[in-house]
Write a structure and sequence with these properties.
By secondary structure, the chain is of the alpha+beta class. It has one domain: Alpha-Beta Complex (Spore Coat Polysaccharide Biosynthesis Protein SpsA, Chain A). The strands form five sheets. It has a four-stranded mixed beta sheet with strand order 5-10-7-11. The protein has a two-stranded antiparallel sheet with strand order 1-2. The chain starts with 13 loop residues before the first strand and ends with a helix.
């Protein structure tokens, strides 16, 4: 996303006149999620300054700051666990835009995790995981792409180390034990991974 992210963290890039992360906050609030934890690294102070304690959005926001260099998704979640408590929690990537109905995830997962999968976008045609009934598998044909929306139990991270590590290996291990459920979401979803995709979404929301 450079040069846009040289001075602005990706979640604060504006889409349709407001920061990308604000869409998530508002959608989560409407779905009943009122206690949020925002994990931040690059230029994270700007996120804290912009969102504050969440009162302006009708939620409460706590922050989990990553050290310089970031921790990847798994490490970031592990670091935030003291703020997340002992109950299942929802994680939403800050660099996506979607109309997913989050109220569907206001529940406990059947296993250690529940993943929202989508049709493979052009930039990721090979997909990530296969949906077999309600269970997610790592092997097989007709894979779908992980949306960056997942419901997790803290136990998934119980044996993981502190520091930098990706989320995918933890999920694959749980998949082998048939402890990861999933669903196929067919609504609007976009990975804001390039300035071009950001511009396309702005044009779409503006009706151009």
């Amino acid at each position: 996303m450079r040069p846009l992210t040289d001075r602005t963290p990706k979640p604060l890039l504006e889409v349709g006149g407001k920061p990308l992360i604000q869409y998530h906050i508002e959608a989560l609030r409407e779905a009943g999620f009122r206690e949020l934890v925002v994990n931040h690294a690059h230029l994270g102070g700007q996120i804290v300054e912009r969102l504050g304690d969440g009162e302006q959005f009708g939620v409460r926001i706590d922050y989990s700051a990553e050290p310089e260099g970031a921790l990847e998704t798994g490490g970031g979640i592990k670091r935030a666990l003291p703020l997340l408590g002992n109950q299942p929690f929802l994680v939403v990537n800050g660099d996506i835009w979607t109309d997913y109905p989050y109220q569907q995830l206001y529940r406990e997962p059947e296993g250690l995790a529940h993943l929202v999968l989508i049709d493979n976008p052009e930039h990721h045609p090979q997909g990530d995981f296969r949906l077999n009934g309600r269970w997610v598998e790592d092997e097989g044909e007709h894979k779908l792409t992980f949306s960056g929306i997942g419901l997790y139990r803290p136990e998934l991270f119980a044996d993981s180390p502190e520091g930098v590590f990706p989320l995918a290996p933890l999920l694959r291990g749980a998949m082998q034990a048939r402890r990861v459920s999933g669903e196929h979401f067919r609504g609007r979803w976009l990975d804001i991974g390039t300035p071009q995709r950001l511009a396309e979404l702005n044009r779409e929301l503006a009706g151009v």
